[in-house]
Write a structure and sequence with these properties.
With 143 residues, this protein is an all-alpha fold. The protein has helices spanning 2-7, 13-19, 26-39, 43-52, 58-71, 77-86, 90-142. It is built from seven helices and no strands.
Amino acid sequence: LNGLAQLGDEAALPSVLETSQYGVPTRGRRAAIMALPELSQERRIRRHLEALLEDAHPHVRGDVARALQSLGDPVARGALRSQLARENDGRVRRRLRGAIDGLTNSGKSVDRRLSRDMESLREKLEELEAKLGKLEQKKGKSK
């Protein structure tokens, strides 16, 4: 499953989703859960992982928290916070807090990156408008 995840081939997604379900040996499920964010960033993957936060096995819940953080969708913070309020296992609680913090910080860095990109686009737009103005002036003079 790790190899499939590294390939990033979405054709493997149905098989990996199936392997992450209850009834598959825990080791296989955990590997599938960690592979999901590498295969797809779709909303349905986030929803699938959020549903797995209620799994009976604490190692699975901890891996789901890591997978949700890896997925990078800040929307998952709500489900992670809800699970944190219900969670009794200290190891899983640590992972949940780490995932929430990671998603919060990644959201801030995304905001900073978007602000920089926006400023860069504004500067380029100003340059293009200036060039267009000069071209229009030349065209007006040549008539």
